[in-house]
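Here is my example:
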Amino acid sequence: MASKHDPRRVPAAEFIRDFANWRMQAAREPVVVTHHGKDAHVLISLDDYRKLDGKEAATVDVLRDSQSALLDAVRDAVLVVDRQRRIVAVNPAASDMLECAAPALIGNTLTSALPGLESNLLFPHVARMIDHRQRFAGEVPGLLRPRQWLRADLVPLPVGGALILRDVSEGIGDLAERDALRALATAIDADGGVGHARISVREAIEAASPALAAMVGVDEAAMRRVRFSALLALGERHAFAEALEDLFRTGAPARIASELVTREGAVLPVILSIAERRGAYASDGALILVTRR
């Protein structure tokens, strides 16, 4: 094969005039043919060429096997389609999502595998991916079943394109639930008769509603980082601490009678409803609703 030192170089005109000699030289080492002083071609022996071709073929095979293994390992459903929108490859996640074995999917049209596609807002994006090589990413509802949301990524490929699908129904449901909770908090604030505060596990107030600030008679910003028990009458702080400790230990919401102390020193009888704010791994603190008695 090629030696490690620089190969012999010969101008194209000289190469043509003395081809037999340079052919013999190429049997021992590569000969670079130049054109206008720049490397243009390389002459090598047939044996070297076959060795080179074998290595390239082996590299292509390894790359193809690696791509196949990677596709199988992807947790998202992947369907590869040709320009006629026939399925040419699927990964195990796609078979699971469609509840159909890969051999039964390959060769079928995309619309036969996804019956709801033609009436789904994803359909025109698939057409643009195939016809105009346009990418798309977004959440689409009802593609496979009612009330299911899928995250769809459309990727143009030389063969046609790939659909990458992920079930995000749970995440969409969480967003809807958070929206509902925000609306509930807004309604409570609009009522004005119920105050609320968000506290940390160390009892520091992270946020307080205008209604609670009005009950105490201070600005909302002045209440931040203050311990919630500092707003209570001295005789009520122990009961509050016990209720908070039980809440973090058991997770069960608590409801206790208590008393707020206003800025002017007056005592305001209230009911405290306390619920834990639970994060993915630990408690994030608590939410306290304060209503007058």
